[in-house]
Design a protein that fits this description.
202 residues, two-stranded antiparallel sheet, two-stranded antiparallel ribbon
């Protein structure tokens, strides 16, 4: 916290435990950020679009014809996952997992960690999202009703914790790892849980 902050350490509230003791509520520092969005790859691309007031909504590009009333979407376009994720891992990834992994790579690089550095038991992976791999679910639903064979890797791609598991394995994170699914508040709650874990001493 800057020296000019009007909030003193004594004024910061603690978190009460069942025992009646209080957990320290010191400020938590964000040391790295990552982003994959319709505005492009990386935090800089996202922030530039925000500052410029530039919308990334455009005509929806779908793999199959659809009778949707809504014809526009904010999609991640022209993104090639292969330079970022190896051929041994990519078959297990829905696009949502790919985006999460690439964003995590950017965030950890900003924080000063080496690629694939083993982070250990004091590192948690918490991801907030309303659902899992919806692209895979849509593709497999279409395949089923078309009489085609379903991909055996469907379940590892669509489960809500898929991206969490893949990031945890990628960086050797053996602390708490789970997904938060609470609709539109998922991301905010995941951040809040992360803060709680840091303050608890993980």
């Amino acid at each position: 916290r800057p020296e000019t902050s009007p909030v003193s350490s004594a004024a910061l509230p603690g978190v009460c435990c069942k025992s009646g003791s209080r957990v320290r509520a010191d400020p938590i520092v964000v040391t790295g950020m990552g982003a994959i969005a319709a505005t492009g790859q990386g935090v800089d691309a996202l922030w530039s679009a925000v500052c410029a007031g530039r919308s990334a909504v455009g005509p929806a590009e779908l793999p199959r014809p659809a009778q949707h009333r809504v014809k526009i979407a904010a999609q991640v376009r022209q993104f090639d996952a292969r330079p970022h994720i190896g051929p041994d891992l990519l078959p297990f990834c829905d696009p949502v997992s790919v985006f999460a992994i690439v964003a995590a790579d950017e965030a950890l690089a900003q924080a000063g960690f080496a690629p694939h550095e083993v982070l250990g038991a004091r590192t948690a992976v918490i991801l907030g999202g309303a659902s899992g791999g919806m692209t895979t679910l849509d593709d497999m639903t279409f395949a089923y009703f078309s009489g085609k064979r379903l991909d055996p890797l469907t379940v590892p791609r669509i489960m809500s914790s898929a991206a969490v598991s893949l990031i945890g394995m990628r960086y050797g994170c053996t602390g708490p790892s789970f997904a938060v699914g609470s609709a539109c508040s998922s991301a905010s709650q995941a951040i809040g849980l992360g803060v709680t874990l840091v303050r608890s001493g993980i």
